[in-house]
Amino acid sequence: MSPNELKSILPALLEIARQAGQAILDVYGREFSVTQKADDSPLTQADLASHVIIRDGLAQLTPDIPLLSEESATIDFSTRSGWKAYWLVDPLDGTKEFVNRNGEFTVNIAFIQNHEPVCGVVHVPVSGISYTGITGLGATRIEPDGQTQSIAVRRPCAEPAIVVGSRSHANPKLLQYLAAAGEYQLVSMGSSLKFCLLAEGKADFYPRLGLTSEWDTAAAHAVVTAAGGRIVKLNGENLDYNRKESLLNPNFLVIADPDRGWLELFSEYPE
Question: Considering Cα of 73, then 126, then 145, then 198, what sign does the dihedral take?
Answer without folding.
Answer: negative
